Amino acid sequence: MDNISSKSSMQSYTLNELRPARNLVLSSMGIENGVPVPDDVQFLFDEAMKGFNDLAKHIGLIKHINNETFEEILKGKGKNENKIPLQGIVAKASHLALFVFILGEKVSHEIQQRIRDKDYPIGYMLDIIASRSTELATVVQEKRFMDNIGFVSNQKALLYSPGYCGWHITAQQKIFAYLKPERIGVKLNGSSLMSPIKSVTGIMVAGDREAHNFKNNYNFCRSCKTFSCRERMKT
Length: 235
Known about the structure:
Largest sheet: 5 strands, antiparallel
CATH topology: NADH Oxidase
Distance between the termini: 24 Å
Strand order of the largest sheet: 1-2-3-7-4
Radius of gyration: 18 Å
Helix content: 40-55%
Strand content: 15-25%
Number of strands: 7
CATH architecture: 3-Layer(aba) Sandwich
CATH class: Alpha Beta
Structural class: alpha+beta
Number of domains: 1
Order of helices and strands: EHHHEHHEHHEHEEEH
């Protein structure tokens, strides 16, 4: 596997890159394109987006690694399912990198404060906007990763995070030990959950598109409610 650099690289993003479109946010509320948006919902969206624009601070950290390093990270605390899709996916990968993204403490604090103040509508809308922005950060970084290593049409990069598809959440501890994302403001608690809550971390895997395709017939797939992996494979 060609490992470009072992050094971690700070990533910055513009607000335009990671500001979710109105239709994307409203679709999370069940309001699809073409459906009239009630005035009160539009007001909530405008107010929440203003808060997001003022408070969001997008920072990422990425570090290329080799298979040997990832094997150690994959083990986590030894609580993974016996067999997980990521093992086969990484075996076919051309490049790997650890990645962490943080939306910033201020946005998370504002969401929590709105909820404490029982201002649920704005808090809920801001939470959706922040979640969508975090998702966009993953998509943007996947593209950057491919551009960095040299894009090939039949290849793609996807981020895989602990806590999904049989990879136990405790692997976060190994990722933090290697990447040290505390320097950009991300912390890990005793349950291996990140703070601020609008953060994401995992392994960026680049390889042939087919390498990311797996049958969702694992035991843990039975409890999955979204099957979002199928949508990711299509892109």
